[in-house]
Specification:
This protein has 135 residues and is an alpha/beta fold. It contains 5 helices and 5 strands; from the N terminus they run αβαββαβαβα. It has a 5-stranded parallel sheet with strand order 2-1-3-4-5, sandwiched between helices.
Length: 135
């Protein structure tokens, strides 16, 4: 069985570079804004997903995950824990390879469903914190 650290490393290094960031808007005070910039600096293509469908960091935004007209590798979730399970289910339906629940986003049932569907998943962690630890 893979450890969570192994899963983090696999998601960041092996599963692809297109990251849909659910909850990303142009609000610079929100954590998603800064995390998206870090992901870009590390070679990831970010895809903003937010009801306003705003362009962020030079990338076209979409109002929902199912509105993204191309495949995404990882779905990074910046919504309340109450909404996160629905996003995880949408990620499975979209064909993503992994789901990443940000710090403070916890839904054990969604974690189990997502893993049972064959996706890698981490919960309550931040890729902007984890990426520098890979070096």
């Amino acid at each position: 069985m893979q450890s969570e650290t192994d899963t983090v490393r696999r998601i960041l290094n092996e599963l692809g570079d297109t990251w849909a960031i659910v909850g990303l808007s142009t609000n610079e005070r929100r954590a998603a804004y800064g995390v998206a910039k870090v992901l870009q600096r590390h070679g990831k293509r970010i895809v903003p997903v937010h009801p306003k469908a705003e362009a962020v960091h030079g990338e076209q935004g979409y109002p929902s995950l199912d509105a993204v007209p191309f495949d995404v590798d990882v779905v990074d979730v910046f919504v309340n824990s109450d909404l996160a399970g629905t996003v995880a289910d949408q990620a499975v339906a979209k064909g993503a390879k992994a789901v990443w629940f940000q710090l403070g986003v916890i839904d054990e049932e969604a974690y189990e469903r997502t893993r049972a569907a064959g996706l890698d998943m981490v919960m309550d962690r931040c890729p902007a914190i984890e990426i520098p630890l890979l070096d």
